[in-house]
Amino acid sequence: MKFENAIVLVTGANRGLGQEFARQALERGAKRVYAGARDASSVKLAGVEPIQLDVTKPDQVRAAAEKIGDLTILINNAGIASTGAFVSADAQAQLQNHLNTNLFGMLNLSQAFAPILAKNGGGAIINMLSLLSLVSTPVLGTYGVSKAAAWSLTNGLRQELRQQGTQVVGVHAGFIDTDLTRGFDAPKVSPESVVRQAFDAVEAGAEEVLADEPSRQIHQGLSSSVYLADILRG
User: Fold this and answer.
1) Which of 68, 122, 154, 208 has its CA 20 to 30 A from that of 90?
2) Which of 92-119 are b and which e, b meaning 16 or more Cβ less than 10 Å from the residue's Cβ?
3) How far apart are CA 54 and CA 224, in angstroms?
4) Residue 200 CB partners (closer than 8 Å, separation 6+)
5) How confident is the model at residue 227 (pLDDT cuts 50, 70, 90)?
6) Closest CA to 100 of 43, 35, 54, 52
7) 93-119: per-residue pLDDT in tens?
8) How confident is the model at residue 181 (pLDDT cuts 50, 70, 90)?
9) Among residues 181, 160, 185, which one has the least CA distance to residue 107?
10) What is the 3-state secondary structure (H, E, C) of the chain?
11) What gap in Å lies between CA 228 and CA 163, rounded to an integer?
12) Distance from C-alpha of 200 to C-alpha of 196, rounded to nearest angstrom
């Protein structure tokens, strides 16, 4: 799948990684790039078409699908992350909040656009996952659960949509150097590198991206039960 002349929708595209997805899509020759955000006026990148899109609101998702009937590449980037322990008083509310955006938001968009992608030749879906799809830490426990669920969803979508010719790419990365991780003192990969690797994978026909060394190490270590440890404590 090539980006040249593609019709692209990026969710959560008003800043950070989402903005970088939109910028590089334009750079690679996309015919049109829709930048979805809860507040469309917050999209400042020149050359994109802002669209109001809260991925947790089915009516806005339906409106986007009705508007973008020629879509060929969907980028499920929108996500939230907050800290909190599983045994804290608000753990269930925190988990539900994460699931609403990071899992059900991804599902909402994928369900809405899968028939459109099929009609347009198959296309591709990029799902932005995480290192914490693979392992967990108490610092970001409920976030990790939502991303693990999103990884499972991605793997299921890949199997379901393969027969219609839709390429589904899961992208794992640890801390990315954006506003979302500003409070974390840890090595961070650049958004430019993550997006470049994701787009290279789409164009190469690949299905999974391990975008930094921590993700590659954790992925390799799954067979040795690395997930039993707290990765932030070592």
Assistant:
1) 154
2) eebbebbbebbbbbbbbbbebbbebbee
3) 39
4) none
5) low
6) 54
7) 999 999 999 999 999 999 999 999 999
8) low
9) 160
10) CCCCCCEEEECCCCCHHHHHHHHHHHHCCCCEEEEEECCHHHCCCCCCEEEECCCCCHHHHHHHHHHCCCCCEEEECCCCCCCECCCCCCHHHHHHHHHHHHHHHHHHHHHHHHHHHHHCCCCEEEEECCHHHCCCCCCEHHHHHHHHHHHHHHHHHHHHHHHHCCEEEEEECCCECCHHHCCCCCCCECHHHHHHHHHHHHHHCCCEEECCHHHHHHHHHHHHCHHHCCCCCC
11) 36
12) 6
- Residue 27 has which token pair? 């750079």
Distance from C-alpha of 91 to C-alpha of 93, rounded to nearest angstrom: 6
CA–CA distance, 31 with 8 (Å, rounded to integer) = 8
| Alpha-carbon torsion angle 91, 94, 100, 103, nearest 10 | -70
Residue with tokens 């339906």: 62
At CA 126, angle to CA 99 and CA 150, rounded to 5?
25
> Is the CA virtual torsion 189, 199, 206, 135 positive or negative?
positive
Beta carbons within 8 Å of 37's beta carbon, 6+ residues apart: 12, 13, 14, 18, 43, 50, 51, 52, 53
Over residues 79-96, the pLDDT tens digits come to 999 998 899 999 999 999
